[in-house]
Specification:
Elements: H1 2-33, H2 55-63, H3 67-79, E1 82-87, E2 90-95, H4 98-106, E3 112-114, H5 118-124, H6 134-147, H7 150-171, E4 176-180, H8 181-198, H9 204-216, H10 228-257, H11 267-276, H12 282-313, H13 315-331, H14 342-346, H15 349-361, E5 367-372, E6 376-378, E7 381-383, E8 388-392, H16 394-397, H17 436-453, E9 454-458, E10 465-467, E11 471-473, E12 478-483
Bound molecules: protoporphyrin IX containing FE.
Transmembrane segments: 6-31
Keywords: Heme, Iron, Membrane, Metal-binding, Monooxygenase, Oxidoreductase, Transmembrane, Transmembrane helix
Protein name: Cytochrome P450
């Protein structure tokens, strides 16, 4: 009897043991395959190993700037335009196509919120616009957008022209066999943000400090001496220290002049004006200035570099573009300052088509992450609350369904209106780029000055584009340049 009890006890112990091992295995399979224990239909795809998922493949492809070709496209072919994966510990749904773009981008704050890696948030600052939702987002966006809206733009044009002219006179006036176009546009766009938006002199060391921060933006958030992230954080603190002084000085100046003027002028005055009125805090001003510098200069400099790359590879487009600028120059009144006017910039229609087509083929931003704030039903699948969603520019830019012969360079395709949520270098929905108009001015004004004043040619027309962490030409896009003989 005792033996029988002990035997049955043993059997039940073994069965319980086996059952728990089995259920653990099942749970692991469920977690790693992302299968569905709540009776919901997840999109197809592989979740890979716990935590790591498919991160290694993602980073490998990203480093070569072939995220679409080597990560997204093969999976989209296997599973369809919507598929699941796991990236950096987060279960993620990758979505492609105009309907998905419209759905996820326009449902910002309702179904999804923007979601950046921990290191990006810490380095940009937790008070920057990218971390804000609802009313807080609206308030900061309002302050930024008014400075960069149509009324603000008119006064920006002569400022940008002056900065471009000074930059070119200083760096391009001698004939040179090797000048890094990308480096030059980076310094220039950084100077434009600092001097035209903030009213602060851009010192070369400040640009270096900002670049040190950028190096840590997608690094693992490990704070130990010598880590990329720690170096970036140190640089970030140096910037914050410098900006605190700038912001406090601006505040004093504006208070001396009277609060009523705080709504005028450049972006920094707008933000500090908001601070004086108690709408935002000093930390919010600083974090948003840091974010704006990053948002504005790396993206714009890459867009300019790719525009020149495309012009060099397509002489027939360059010829049309040169005609447009010669015409503007010919009609220009010779008055005192001789800078371009907003009206003249608006005439650069073909140049803008060239720039848009360059950004279609080489979008400075691949796409971005969102996080589901509730279970979302989309195209017959459920995206569980807390999962990430990655929308991509390439998903429409490189799709025959939206752009005929998508890999060919054809600026003329922008003669026709492009349907919404198809062409997205500047994103869409409530988080559409707040600096779109400013980027457009920077690109057009720079192209005008260069093509009317210099002869130039690329040293390596087929130079590779790599990611570090944003796309950059691997050799800095060296050009041979000489002032035009007038
Ligand atoms: C060619 C140049 C540029 C490109 C391609 C670009 C692209 C983008 C994209 C794709 C987004 C949306 C990100 C998302 O949905 O998560 C964005 C947001 C933003 N951009 Fe730009 N950008 C450019 C230039 C600028 C400039 C010049 C400024 C400012 C002076 C700027 C300020 C911003 C801001 C503040 C946001 C955040 C908007 C929000 O969260 O409401 N960008 N940009």
């Amino acid at each position: 009897m005792v033996i029988q009890i002990t035997y049955s006890y043993l059997i039940s112990c073994v069965s319980i043991g086996l059952l728990s091992i089995l259920s653990t295995i099942l749970l692991i399979i469920c977690i790693t395959r992302g299968c569905n224990w709540r009776n919901i239909k997840l999109p197809p795809g592989e979740m890979g190993l716990p935590w790591i998922g498919e991160t290694v493949d993602f980073y490998k492809a990203q480093r070569k700037n072939r995220l679409f070709e080597e990560f997204v496209q093969p999976r989209a072919t296997r599973y369809g335009k919507i598929f699941k994966t796991r990236l950096m510990g987060s279960p993620t749904i990758v979505v492609n196509g105009a309907d998905a773009n419209r759905f996820f981008l326009s449902n910002e704050f309702k179904l999804v919120i923007s979601s950046w890696p921990t290191s990006s948030v810490q380095l940009m600052g937790k008070n920057s616009i990218m971390e804000k939702q609802g009313d807080h987002h609206r308030c900061i966006r309002g302050l930024i957008a008014t400075a960069l809206s149509n009324t603000g733009l008119g006064s920006l044009v002569p400022k940008i022209c002056r900065t471009v002219e000074l930059h070119l006179n200083k760096n391009w006036n001698e004939s040179q066999d090797k000048l890094s176009l990308y480096r030059s546009t980076k310094v220039l766009t950084f100077t434009i943000v600092f001097e035209c938006l903030l009213g602060v002199n851009a010192e070369p060391e400040t640009l270096n400090t900002f670049e040190r921060v950028l190096e840590g933006v997608f690094a693992p958030p490990i704070s130990c001496p010598g880590s990329r992230f720690s170096r970036a954080m140190k640089a970030r603190n140096e910037i914050a220290k410098m900006l605190v002084e700038v912001v406090r000085e601006k505040r004093k100046e504006m208070e001396r002049a009277g609060l009523e003027r705080s709504n005028e002028g450049m972006l920094l005055s707008r933000l500090v004006g908001g601070m004086i009125r108690g709408e935002i805090s000093e930390e919010e001003v600083i974090d948003n200035v840091v974010l704006l510098v990053f948002a504005a200069h790396d993206t714009t400099s890459f867009a300019i570099a790719m525009t020149f790359k495309m012009l060099a590879q397509h002489p027939e487009c360059l010829a049309l573009l040169l005609e447009e600028h010669a015409e503007i120059k010919k009609k220009k009144r010779v008055d005192d300052d001789n800078y371009l006017t907003l009206e003249e910039v608006k005439k650069m229609k073909y140049t803008w088509q060239v720039a848009r087509e360059s950004m279609r083929l080489f979008p400075p931003i691949f796409g971005s992450f969102r996080k589901a704030i509730e279970d979302i039903e989309f195209e017959g699948f459920t995206i569980p609350r807390g999962w990430k969603v990655l929308w991509t520019t390439y998903g429409t830019h490189y799709d025959e369904e939206y752009f005929k012969d998508p890999l060919s360079f054809n600026p003329g395709r922008f003669e026709e209106a492009i349907p919404p949520y198809v062409y997205l270098p500047f994103g869409g929905g409530p988080r559409v780029c707040a600096g779109y108009q400013m980027a457009k001015l920077n690109i057009l004004i720079f192209v005008h000055y260069v093509v009317t004043r210099y002869d130039w040619s690329l040293l390596y027309p087929d130079e590779q584009i790599i990611m570090d962490p944003l796309p950059i030409p691997s050799r800095g896009m060296p050009i041979k340049v000489s002032p035009k003989l007038l």
